[in-house]
Design a protein that fits this description.
This protein is of the alpha+beta class. The chain is built from eight helices and nine strands. It is elongated and about 75 Å long.
């Protein structure tokens, strides 16, 4: 049990050997993070520099652990800096640090720059390919609203109970493919009231919004809302 992370850390071979020597003299044991018994140690050379890539998989990398604190201190005192990548169990838990003083240390992490360039290119293409990138959805149907909140049992049960008291709800969902999150707003109206009042306002990951709307990805949504807009223009013409 617990939370696990995968780590990749690059340092110069000189700094790596220095860390091992420091660890031998330390009362806090960092061997699990440094030695081949538990970590995968890969040596590589770039531009005449001898470097080390430390690979650690399925590790409980808790900042409260003394060994982790000691290891972080070793990293902070490396002569030539380091590149650090930690990917946690949660899909959006990614930590990246780069204090490298020599370019060679970035070699194992070139894929990050490639992903960044590709993402920027795709976003640029989307913006030029589609004129409309956002859409607002309004739901008043009981089943649609309950489905939206079914992952939160407390809200789900509260709404269901209030429906039995003849209270009406209206859900607004704003999706913008240029953003990573979508805004959802739930309003309610009692039987003796003329207007709705806002009761819940929250941001959810755009992936969750797309899943609720029944789209596999952003591209599918963009195609539909832009084709719909094009059809309306043709009708007007």
């Amino acid at each position: 049990m617990g939370y696990y992370s995968d780590l990749r850390i690059s340092i110069t071979k000189r700094d790596y050997l220095s860390m091992i020597e420091k660890n031998k003299a330390s009362s806090i044991d960092c061997n699990d993070l440094l030695l081949p018994d538990n970590a995968i140690i890969k040596e590589f050379k770039k531009d005449g520099n001898s470097c080390i890539l430390i690979q650690l998989d399925s590790l409980k990398y808790y900042k409260e652990f003394e060994a982790v604190q000691q290891f972080e201190e070793y990293l902070s005192k490396t002569r030539n800096g380091y590149v650090f990548l930690r990917i946690g169990s949660k899909w959006d838990d990614i930590e990246y640090r780069n204090t490298a003083k020599i370019k060679a240390l970035e070699e194992p992490f070139k894929f990050i720059e490639m992903i960044k360039k590709k993402a920027i290119k795709e976003i640029t293409n989307k913006k030029t390919k589609y004129t409309k990138t956002k859409m607002e959805y309004i739901y008043t149907d009981k089943d649609d609203i309950l489905e939206f909140y079914e992952s939160n049992s407390k809200i789900y049960n509260d709404i269901k109970e209030q429906y039995d008291q003849n209270i009406q709800f209206k859900l607004f969902l704003n999706v913008d493919t240029n953003e990573t999150e979508s805004l959802s707003v739930l309003q309610m109206r009692k039987a003796d009231e003329d207007t709705y009042s806002e009761i819940i306002k929250e941001y959810i990951p755009i992936e969750s919004a797309l899943y609720y709307l029944g789209y596999q990805d952003e591209e599918e949504l963009l195609k539909e809302i832009n084709e719909s807009e094009k059809s309306e223009e043709e009708l007007e013409y």
